[in-house]
Design goal:
The structure is a homopentamer of 328-residue chains. The first copy, chain A, is of the alpha+beta class and 328 residues long. Chain A contains 10 helices and 7 strands.
Amino acid sequence: MIRSLFYSPGQPIRKDIPPKEFPKLVRDRRGVLWVNFENEPADTCLPILQRFGFHPLAIDDALQEIHIPKLDDWGDYLYIVLNYLDIQANGYTWETKTEELDIFLGANYIVTLHDTPIPAIADTWASCDRDLRTVQEGPDHLLYRIADHLVSGYMPTVEKIDAAIDQIEDEVFDRPAPRTLEKLFALKRLLQAMRRILLPQREVMNKLARDDYKVIDPRDRIFFRDIYDHLVRLHDLNESLRDLVGGALDTYLSVINNRMNDVMKTLTIITTLFMPITFITGFFGMNFFEPVAGLVGWTTRQVFMATVSIMLLFPIGMFIWMRRRKWV
Amino acid sequence: MIRSLFYSPGQPIRKDIPPKEFPKLVRDRRGVLWVNFENEPADTCLPILQRFGFHPLAIDDALQEIHIPKLDDWGDYLYIVLNYLDIQANGYTWETKTEELDIFLGANYIVTLHDTPIPAIADTWASCDRDLRTVQEGPDHLLYRIADHLVSGYMPTVEKIDAAIDQIEDEVFDRPAPRTLEKLFALKRLLQAMRRILLPQREVMNKLARDDYKVIDPRDRIFFRDIYDHLVRLHDLNESLRDLVGGALDTYLSVINNRMNDVMKTLTIITTLFMPITFITGFFGMNFFEPVAGLVGWTTRQVFMATVSIMLLFPIGMFIWMRRRKWV
Amino acid sequence: MIRSLFYSPGQPIRKDIPPKEFPKLVRDRRGVLWVNFENEPADTCLPILQRFGFHPLAIDDALQEIHIPKLDDWGDYLYIVLNYLDIQANGYTWETKTEELDIFLGANYIVTLHDTPIPAIADTWASCDRDLRTVQEGPDHLLYRIADHLVSGYMPTVEKIDAAIDQIEDEVFDRPAPRTLEKLFALKRLLQAMRRILLPQREVMNKLARDDYKVIDPRDRIFFRDIYDHLVRLHDLNESLRDLVGGALDTYLSVINNRMNDVMKTLTIITTLFMPITFITGFFGMNFFEPVAGLVGWTTRQVFMATVSIMLLFPIGMFIWMRRRKWV
Amino acid sequence: MIRSLFYSPGQPIRKDIPPKEFPKLVRDRRGVLWVNFENEPADTCLPILQRFGFHPLAIDDALQEIHIPKLDDWGDYLYIVLNYLDIQANGYTWETKTEELDIFLGANYIVTLHDTPIPAIADTWASCDRDLRTVQEGPDHLLYRIADHLVSGYMPTVEKIDAAIDQIEDEVFDRPAPRTLEKLFALKRLLQAMRRILLPQREVMNKLARDDYKVIDPRDRIFFRDIYDHLVRLHDLNESLRDLVGGALDTYLSVINNRMNDVMKTLTIITTLFMPITFITGFFGMNFFEPVAGLVGWTTRQVFMATVSIMLLFPIGMFIWMRRRKWV
Amino acid sequence: MIRSLFYSPGQPIRKDIPPKEFPKLVRDRRGVLWVNFENEPADTCLPILQRFGFHPLAIDDALQEIHIPKLDDWGDYLYIVLNYLDIQANGYTWETKTEELDIFLGANYIVTLHDTPIPAIADTWASCDRDLRTVQEGPDHLLYRIADHLVSGYMPTVEKIDAAIDQIEDEVFDRPAPRTLEKLFALKRLLQAMRRILLPQREVMNKLARDDYKVIDPRDRIFFRDIYDHLVRLHDLNESLRDLVGGALDTYLSVINNRMNDVMKTLTIITTLFMPITFITGFFGMNFFEPVAGLVGWTTRQVFMATVSIMLLFPIGMFIWMRRRKWV
């Protein structure tokens, strides 16, 4: 789907402009043109992008999937790649899809390309419809709005992850199960994926906030600085959450380990207590004490009493010995 | 709660000034104005902050929770975020809450915003009451006092953590329990949280000590340098404590591991000593030696003596063999 | 095999030029000369390279195997080492061979040396044959084509690795075997080897894209910048894949560990349930209850009933106790 | 204890000068004044330090314990903090105490403060007594002598640690005990503590060797460079020792692990060999073979022979099977 | 042993020149003087080095053992420390000795000091004997030759290590033994030691290749650049080998772990199969079934058949259960 809108001071907003008019509109220095490509095949986009006079390498990048936020300064226009992280909680795992948003930003136009619907684009477009001021402030301000929207979208995810960690932390102590570990690994992977996107995006915003670009009004840099701060904070939250996941993993492993130690101790205690006295029962079960061997003296009542005493005293002795070694 | 105080040379300190007078007072270049917002809703703060002419983005940052220390230079004023770490020992765990302190510092005024009571603010305010000199030295000196107080507040916590580690280190050797591990993990998390706050705060102080700001008297930079040194030292202490916690964790794990090895060895020794001789008792317990089978010759007194000898010599032999393998 | 081609504006492409003509052709500033050595012994290459007037150290480097991508600026020419990673899936392991491609790039010539056939060279050569324009744009453009081809060649490998990881991730949960671990280690090593090559190659492209070299047309730098971006992306994919392999390793180890814990628990439960009641059977198997000892009262029907009850109740009790400790 | 000495060309060295004369002596540009405070309370030091005109913040730092080597340039004087690491071998553990040495270095005076006796100070003082030349070369040379002495003092400790590691390495293979592990952890902690002091001290020396200070003769920088090199070497030795400790830890763990594996294998072998044949003995111990059940045919001499054969052959078979799995 | 040679254009090479002539020869700007000290006590070297007018600190460094490659620029001469790693394979362990080579490089002289014979020195000396050109190119070229020889000497060691790793990798899968682990740890330590020497040596060569020194002909810098590249490559090989050792360690541990898991599983399977049926044999071995108790009905032929059936079916059931849990 190709959509376009054109604003010129004192005139109503024009929509769905035929592509062949784009070069003319771009020459109107006071106007603002926004062209948006959503899920269009490369063949459709290519000729339209060429009308803007973009460098073939930049067009190549825009039509291929690159997936790493970056900013190329081509003088009269900037080529910017941003990422949109689509995260869906799916039971206790998380499905993440990284979507790419390609942006060409000129002095009086902005061209955006993406494959799947991105809320930041849809909402900004709707806002242009509702409120003329959105578009009046120029294409760099539109870029700010889109990026701000994109970045704000991470916050609910971060909060969902936070809640998930809280819930798992309780689970770790009460009923640690292999599933708990899977949940933790899923969160760890998710946070790694987020971090991988936040860092280069932060770098792009830093460049927009600091460097001197022909198409960015220096007074607007402060807005990109604001998004940059937002991304710094998100990165910091991400680090904190990774610490929490790391801590929960440590705790899980130590809880499991303690339980296993308990199991092994029980095994050893039972074996240690019963194996020797079972040997004694075996001893007196031998057929030597049948009348044939004439060892009748070994199976008298007195010996029986002594044997039973040993069978009672031996476990008590072992228990005391284990106590002293702090096993029990 | 909104509080304000205004000092002008030669006049008594004015308090609880109506907000509409603020712009006028700010124009009095020789005066010092301090406005403090504690736990006020954004709606109340917004119009008052706007009277000072702060940039909308800075006001946004101040009214939202950001939680990362930073410093923005807006020319006529600085916007500074500091953190206050509220740590409560709760049994052997620690409850930490990071509170945000937003500061606007102008040439002759300082505006502070926070949600919960912060001792550094309360004490500096009280000191302004008691001693005129506190406020005479200008708003940058007030900032120094607040920051200094904030940073000094970490020291008792560090000492409590140090004591806690000392106590755990003894526990690790004497009676290591799963609880010991939890305590260590709690300390590790606490130190991580502290470190996360100390580092950006240190950076803010470094900027105040090194860079040239319109609203900071160059002769006062040395004071921020002092706080910077203090934070460097706290960070170093934090690293040392983390080393100690790491060392205690290593020791705990090796003590537990040694104990488990002991347990397994005992299991193996008991099994190895008794299983073979129990087999022998079983052997002579078989019904072949009942008169029916005519194997009466196997259960004579001589065989019995031989059997008992084996039952005594076998464990001794095994013991010698284990000794040589250094198990016992 | 030594191959050469020479293009001069308005003339047909000459091929297989005798080496002694090279110096003369190089002096023709408008021509483009490409000399390619494939698997030639050093003795053959040496005199030809000397005709170009390359520095002895550069020739030494080109004739020895160095294996690390680098770029040396010798003023009139660049000496560049690129790597070609030949990866063959071999069952579940991977055979990787790093091949070296040495390049001398002058203002109007390019000399390439390699030991094994490299597709990037073969294809670019073929393209020169087919299409005059390939060679018209000068030797720096030929370098771009070769490097671009080389770098594009990593993509299918990355996709193969991606597919392999997908398949292993399923395996890890369903039927983890020692072989699964070997596969993961093999992938880890492969990704490490790739990373080791990508990073210095990226640095070479960065230099070509940023620095000012006599033999590179500044307008062509943007092409090397494009390859640089491609390598950044490959490096990023590599990192993601390493994360995935790391995650699969973690999962494998925890699945195996869970299984082992299950095994140990079963051992303990069986032992704990049966050892005590086996002792009881042994107790009543002793020969004291033969008529001789006169302990006939111990083996009455009532005692038997009581014994059988204990043998039934004891395991039930143990089971409840284990339940409470959350073993079962 | 406060000690002072004053050297003026052509005059005998004066000692124990009354503090009130200090300002006068400092004005004598050709003289050299050294004041040393050892374990003096802050109240005593404060007024004397104030006579020198030091900045209140610098005095504060000197009177408090800071414990991190640093260098502050106050223009007319430098404030330097150095550390002295007092290491006592205590059985197989090490007691380390970090002592702080505060130094004020002016153009013609040096003021040193410390709490416990430091050999570097004591020896340099004694050398001033013995040899006029020590003090003649100016206060920056005195600083060099003190720092050089301080740094040389680490060498014997490093050698002691080296010897301790050598001894432990033998122990690890011959008779690894929990104590061995404790020794290794103690060494690790000691080396960490050393490293923590060496690094900032190295930075201080680097500054003295490179930067331009009013009170340091540029020709004397080479001496601080020498100490810097010494600290680089110590840091390098420290890294090597840490590698050795790390290697010994790895070896210890693998030796212990091998032993535990041996233990577990023995347990399994014994159980696997004896449990099945013990079952057979139990089988034929059942009372079915009493005359009552009429199963007399099961307990004939032939069956006995067969049973004994199985009891002999079974363990042999198991042993062969284990051999093939490479357990034994 | 002190050796010296002096070359002056048009004259034969002089040898074993008396030390007192050195200052005179050094003044002959066109000559080249090389003095080599091998295993000479400091007392002998000191006066000779002083004749060259070296700074006392530089002489100190040269006469003590420092062991860290470094480069000090003293203006008229450079003081350089290089290292020679003497590696001897000793069974499966490696003996490494780091030897120090101290070099003073002046405009027309070079002074070298070392304790043990170093092949790089011996060969360069011999080459001066054989071929006048070696010495004609000046002392900086002699330095290049020595350093080049030193660095080339690492290559055979790297190849030996490579072969050793190859051999161990086979061993790890076929017959992993504690000794295998020791070999791997030995290789790890060796590679760590190599790395520790390569890095600072690389830095020295980088300085010689980049910085401007009075005593190095700028045209000769390219030679040091060549050694630098060689060291970069060695460092890279070292990293690869460390990866391989790391991979082999991982594999070893997982092979051992798999084996141990096998052992534990076998233990559990045997116990689980035999303990319950052994209990049954015990049950029927109790003396209740002696005629006395009148429980004769429990030991009839039918009960026997049922019991034997249970004894056969029970293990089969357990086996199916274990199969389903994927133990077997």
